[in-house]
Amino acid sequence: MDDKLKSWLEISTLAHQYISALDNDQLEEWPTFFTTDCHYEIIPKENFDAGLKAPVIYCTNQKMLRDRVVSLRHANIYEKHTYRHMISGLVLGKEHDGQITTTCSYVVILTDQEGESVVYQTGAYHDTVARSDGVLKYSRKIAVYDTLRVQTLLATPI
Amino acid sequence: MDDKLKSWLEISTLAHQYISALDNDQLEEWPTFFTTDCHYEIIPKENFDAGLKAPVIYCTNQKMLRDRVVSLRHANIYEKHTYRHMISGLVLGKEHDGQITTTCSYVVILTDQEGESVVYQTGAYHDTVARSDGVLKYSRKIAVYDTLRVQTLLATPI
Amino acid sequence: MDDKLKSWLEISTLAHQYISALDNDQLEEWPTFFTTDCHYEIIPKENFDAGLKAPVIYCTNQKMLRDRVVSLRHANIYEKHTYRHMISGLVLGKEHDGQITTTCSYVVILTDQEGESVVYQTGAYHDTVARSDGVLKYSRKIAVYDTLRVQTLLATPI
């Protein structure tokens, strides 16, 4: 199998593990998918496309992600709903110095306490994956969301 | 390619074949994805998380699945709607005695006779895949659903 | 890795690249996923199942696809909404003379200018993939849609 196909498969499994942790209440696993000096943000598509720096969530290292998990567990927000992240359209960019850029679309379906399921958020991940000692981690993940009405619940990682 | 990556790819193709049969009215194929002594159930997440045994559908062998298909065809329920199963977040657990545990999230979109599409059900598969003579089959599949309002239509396999 | 598994992986990456182009406003890339003498159509499931020839969009070569892109850009319809194509259930048929048939389900989520996200269209792709000089392209792609209410917006490629 050629290297490009193998990289696609590896990064695909990484992306599926990532959303599996979010969907199955393994929130403490979430920071472990990132490098220690990672960049994570959630930003509206309108701002992203215009080059505006106005993310609604902005973390510049893994510790900030861990702090966020502690806050979320304390606020107990996460357990009240169920999220299902669907990803599709994964494509890889060029590999450079052991870093590969990659994008994919996501759709998050939310089921609330009454058991009603709605489209909660759609968007695209703009990621950079770093390979270190054979392990793949996100050195950069930007969730660019299309949907506007979801902002009140944005405390939850995407 | 390492064995773990290959297993992920193999089980991924199995999962996609499974939902393809359900979505394309190949209901008679459905039991063939299971071992003869399989366990299949559909259970609400609330009960599953609490360890309660209260599935809405419960089959303990392949013959029960076949009987179910005959019933569904006779009742003619299946043809009235179109389902599209989306799966994401496939992850593998440990392999033990030729059996691999695996989970993934699912979202089923229902389009009714009037052509209206809605989120019908979300949930997660908790599966065990058995390998026998190079063929992969489900020895156990538990569909744990989040959505409550869907129970009236639950005669259809997930 | 056996050939069947490798073909599934290759065609899977092709399908994800295809929807990535559609979802990320790379509409000019869309025709490049097809062979020069390709067949592309969008047809309601009711007509497709009945063997009726009544597609809502029908192109019989790559140039017609390019013309369509020019029209769409001129009409400026495409930029007003964001689409997210989710695909699942990819299965391969037989390979014959370097052509492989394949199907998968799709769900398109539309987010409008007000930021509201809804299920826009569900359906299945019935495709034929041709391999030429190691490159895979669609020689035939039929988008068979389940959803009826979406017809007014059908100018956009699926």
Instruction: Provide the low-confidence segments of chain A as ranges.
Output: none
Major beta sheet, strand line-up of chain A: 2-1-6-5-4-3
Please summarize the sheet with the most strands of chain A.
6 strands, mixed
Strand content of chain A: 35-45%
CATH architecture of chain A: Roll
Q: Kindly state the mean pLDDT of chain A as a whole number?
A: 90
* Total number of domains of chain A: 1
Report the helical percentage of chain A: 25-40%
Number of helices of chain A: 3
Radius of gyration of chain A (CA) equals 15 Å
Question: What is the SS-derived class of chain A?
Answer: alpha+beta
Q: Count the beta strands of chain A.
A: 6
Q: Output the CATH topology of chain A.
A: Nuclear Transport Factor 2, Chain: A
- Oligomeric form of this entry? homotrimer
Distance between the termini of chain A: 32 Å
The CATH C-level class name of chain A: Alpha Beta
N-to-C order of helices and strands of chain A: HEHEHEEEE
Shape of chain A: globular
Largest interface: A-B, 26 and 24 residues
